[in-house]
Amino acid sequence: MNEIEQEQRIYAVIASIPRGAVVTYGQVADLAGMPRAARLVGRTVSKLPGDTRLPWHRVINATGKISMPRESLGFDRQKERLQEEDVVVTNGRIDLKEFRWQP
DNA sequence: ATGGTGACTTGGC
DNA sequence: TGCCAAGCCACCA
């Protein structure tokens, strides 16, 4: 599959994440049929246009943390969006046991 | 070609 | 929990 096709798959997976739930980059990769491509997912997400409708904020890393510097603008943006949909974020961390989405 | 760099993950201590 | 080393994928200087 080509680049665009990979992006489309990743977008589709992210778009399917229900409100109030989160998934890890690796999980997105798996669901998109691209195991071990977590980094690709991270890179793809980082290049999303600022006005995208995709719920990219529901994607976090395997340790349950927001993958961005705590002081960054993006960090705050993601945190706000998550809390807005009742996802508990403490110290940039989310409890995967409770909020991880399992299709 | 070659080494460095991420919005990553896993295993070990 | 936290830090590290390796493995991993795509990109770029």
Layout of helices and strands, plus pairs?
Layout: H1 3-15, E1 23-24, H2 25-31, H3 38-46, E2 59-60, H4 73-84, E3 89-90, E4 93-94, H5 96-99
The protein binds a DNA duplex (13 and 13 nucleotides) through helix 2, helix 3, strand 2 and helix 4.
Task: List its salient traits.
single chain; 103 residues; mainly alpha; Arc Repressor Mutant, subunit A; two-stranded parallel sheet; two-stranded antiparallel ribbon; 5 helices; 8% strand; DNA-binding
Explain the overall architecture.
Helix 2 packs across helix 3 (38-46). The strands form two sheets. A two-stranded parallel ribbon has the order 1-2. A two-stranded antiparallel sheet has the order 3-4. It is mostly helical and 103 residues long. The model has no long low-confidence stretch (mean pLDDT 95). It has helices at 3-15, 25-31, 38-46, 73-84, 96-99, and strands at 23-24, 59-60, 89-90, 93-94. It has one domain (3-99): Winged helix-like DNA-binding domain superfamily/Winged helix DNA-binding domain (Arc Repressor Mutant, subunit A, Orthogonal Bundle). The longest helix is centred in the first third of the chain and has 13 residues, at 3-15. It is built from five helices and four strands; from the N terminus they run H-E-H-H-E-H-E-E-H. The chain binds a DNA duplex (13 and 13 nucleotides) through residues 3, 24-26, 29, 34, 36-46, 56, 59-63, 66-69, 72, 74-75, 78.
